[in-house]
Design goal:
The protein is mainly α. The protein contains 7 helices and 2 strands, in the order ααββααααα. Strands 1-2 form a two-stranded antiparallel ribbon. Helix 5 runs antiparallel to helix 6. It is globular, with a radius of gyration of 15 Å. The protein starts with a helix and ends in a 7-residue tail after the last helix.
Amino acid sequence: MRPTLRTLFLHGGDILKSPGMQIAKENMQHGSVSVFEHSVCVALVCLWLVHRLHLKVNQRALVRGALLHDYFLYDWHTPDKSHRLHAFSHAKCALENARRDFRLSRIERNMIRSHMFPLNTSVPRYRESIILCAADKLCAVAETLRALFPPKSKA
């Protein structure tokens, strides 16, 4: 097992096994990528960025905040007034659900609440929050491009 996967399971094993994350496996995020897969990808990219840039961070908070950043627990593709403005409001919903299901540090709370900055007004206040913002956008772009331009199968 690579050190990043070991770190992911060390700090986020309980989250990965939680009932809420099982719901996240059923909801799509971008293209054919589930919210669960997206969250794991974002956490791994966060760890990769920290390693590549030699940053000092709270790894536990980084992993947990990254795994829970999209813990909104609904299918945002289904038309519904409650999540009509999903891009602007899901961070608040994710934080409410995460606070209900897990004990969160102030860093983790800020990471979840501010990960959509500047689309929402919550400002990233910690290094971990800024890393999450960058990793989330990198993963979202990659997932969206893969959906728009799927690799051609070899015939």
